[in-house]
Amino acid sequence: ATATNAVSATIPVGASPYGVAITPDGAFAYVTNLLDDTVSVIDTATNAVSATIPVGAFPRSVAICPAAVAPPAVVLKFTG
Fold first, then answer.
1. Average pLDDT rounded to a whole number, residues 49-53
2. Quick one: which of 40, 80, 41, 38 has its CA closest to 59?
């Protein structure tokens, strides 16, 4: 919980979680999984992975775009 700086849940995601971004409304967290080439989408209301998205080799960072932009998340990958 933010008020106490305590861990409120541990949510298993893919191999080697690397980057994370939270949607502006706090409803979802996107986690890049460096070693299994996916992004886990976490529903923060349930603290569960709601989707796993294949994105290609070595996703490192994720950024959330404004609400008017689709798709809402952009994944940055290492290609070198």
1. 95
2. 38
Query: What Rg value do the Cα atoms of the chain yield, rounded?
Result: 13
The mean pLDDT of 44-53, rounded to a whole number, is: 96
Q: For 1-80, where are the E strands, in sequence order?
A: 17-22, 28-33, 38-43, 48-54, 59-64, 73-77
Six-digit token string for 18: 């690397």
pLDDT of residue 47: 96
- Distance CA(75)–CA(19), nearest Å, equals 9
Query: What's the pTM?
Result: 0.83
Give CA–CA dist 49/77, Å, rounded: 21
* DSSP helix, strand, coil percent of the chain (3-state; round to 5): 0, 45, 55
